[in-house]
Known about the structure:
- The chain is α+β, with helices and mostly antiparallel strands.
- The chain has four domains: 3-164, PAS domain (Beta-Lactamase, 2-Layer Sandwich), CATH 3.30.450; 259-348, Beta-Lactamase (2-Layer Sandwich), CATH 3.30.450.20; 353-421, Signal transduction histidine kinase, dimerisation/phosphotransfer (DHp) domain (Helix Hairpins), CATH 1.10.287.130; 427-578, Histidine kinase-like ATPase, C-terminal domain (Heat Shock Protein 90, 2-Layer Sandwich).
- The protein has 15 helices and 17 strands.
- The strands form four sheets. Strands 2-1-5-4-3 form a five-stranded antiparallel sheet. A five-stranded antiparallel sheet has the order 7-6-10-9-8. The protein has a five-stranded mixed sheet with strand order 12-14-15-17-16, covered by helices on one side.
- The longest helix is centred in the N-terminal third of the chain and has 52 residues, at 3-54.
- The radius of gyration is 67 Å and the shape is rod-shaped.
- The protein starts with a helix and ends with a strand.
- The model has no long low-confidence stretch (mean pLDDT 90).
- Adenosine-5'-triphosphate binds next to helix 13 and helix 15.
Amino acid sequence: MRIRTRIFGTYIALGVVVLAAAGALIFDRVRDEAHEGIEARVDTGLGVVASALERWEGEVDGGRLDEVVDAFAEAAEARLTVVAADGTVLADSELDGSALAAVEPHGGRAEVRQAIATGEGASVRYSRTLGVDLLYRARRLEAGPWSGGVARIALPMTRVAAAESHARNALLALAAVGLALTLVAGGLLARYLSRPIRELRAVAGRLTEGDLDARARIDTGDELEELAAGLNAAASALGHQVLGARSERDQLEAVLEGMVEGVVVTDSGGRITLSNAALRRMFGLEGSAEGRTPIEALRNAEAADAIQDAARAGVVESEIRLTWPLVRTVSLHAAGLQTGGCVGVFHDVTDRERVEAIRRDFVANVSHELQTPLATLSGYGEALSAATDDPGRVAEIADVVRRQSARMSALIRDLLDLSRLESEGFEPERAEVDVEALAREVADSWIDRAREKGLRLETRIESALNLQGDRRLLQQALANLVENAVKYVPAGGDVAIEARSLPDAVELVVSDTGEGIPREDQPRVFERFYRVEKGRARTRGGTGLGLAIVKHVAEVHGGRVELDSAPGRGARFRIVLPS
Ligand SMILES: Nc1ncnc2c1ncn2[C@@H]1O[C@H](COP(=O)(O)OP(=O)(O)OP(=O)(O)O)[C@@H](O)[C@H]1O
Ligand SMILES: [Mg+2]
């Protein structure tokens, strides 16, 4: 029930009770007064009649008594009767002549009997003659001609009833007015008293809905004002806490969103409650993952299982292969939470794996490349011990040993060069390099071998080409390109070495008319140990380091190397270096 209704109800109930009690008391009093008034009137009337009869000096017989009694009765507005000591009715204000003579003796009437015996008598009786209740009072006459007889007065009770109903009506009207006033006052009071409570309720409602600026303004100076102050204080404390929690959440969100690791948190029901951008990227999620299960959101059974296991078993470490949206390898570290959920962190280890694979390949490649000449050397070593007396054979073996050693030392030199070029922070020497002279030197050193193989070697070298750099590295890079051309272009082909200046750069080009390089291999020929066709490379003795060195030399000088080739139409390598 509403407070207002309760206050109102209580007030009205109280009003009704007070009004009813007061009404009953007043009514009782009024009725008693009416009774007493009538009785007083009756007593006075009776007293006057009795003393008049006791002092009677006129004639005793004849109509005189009846006349006097009638006159008294009219004045007193009552019925008067005079009864003789033997009960005979001597006079009656209501009866005359023959009726009086015929009336039965009244000696048996209660009030008469009582008066004759004790001097006073009273009774209330229904009068058949008048058809109403009558109040009778009788008194014994102590002197005069009718001494021993009784004077009696009768008044209809309707007088009392009329007085009662008059009083009742007045009281009822008063009660109605009182009740109406109570209703209005009660309504106003209930409204006035419940107003601050309604305001408190409204403010509490707004707070619940998240409006933390809501404040109650109550100045009733009582407990409700204190309650409002308490509510306001609680609201501002809550506001501070919410603000703190919000900034903490924002911070956490910023950290989560900034992480490269994918993060997912599930609740005890196995549904995702938190995820970050990295996770969405890794698993190619559209929309938010929150509210979904890991399998629905991540669409990867392995990951979803691991998360579920962690929620049950505590900690799970696993490596998961993703095929969508990209082929990646991610490591998952998932830990169960005390709340029954789990937190999982995905780390993309694809690059780490690739580096690891490159390192493994590199070791395998180097070992393989060194093993081949070593095996040859040890084979020839044995052959040498068996052929000590054959000088021709010895010279042959010595030649092989020399060539294989040279190959090994070239390989080791290339490896050392590469590792130096690749080492972090490597800076090439910066000296003035005469590119024209350098290009001519390389051309000169390869001209004989080209000719031996039946190739034409052309040069188109501009004069006065200069740049800042490491002469030895640049020369090695150009030589590697020329060596490849001489090595891979079949007899009868052409090789050209060009050097020219560009705006702010110098370009060195080695082009040929050989078989060229297949398109699918072109992006990879600059990788270490990469050879287009293993068989072909092996017969020509390459290890696949030449172009890797070229690329690094160009890059450490702030330049680049480009390859333009179509199968069967030769290859064109172009180094561009800033001048
Ligand atoms: N001018 C070219 N014509 C055709 N193929 C070429 C040419 N230059 C390079 N290649 C191909 O690119 C591969 C890589 O060349 P790279 O110079 O790096 O290694 P290599 O010549 O095999 O060995 P290395 O130079 O270390 O002795 C070669 O094995 C060859 O298959
Ligand atoms: Mg080479």
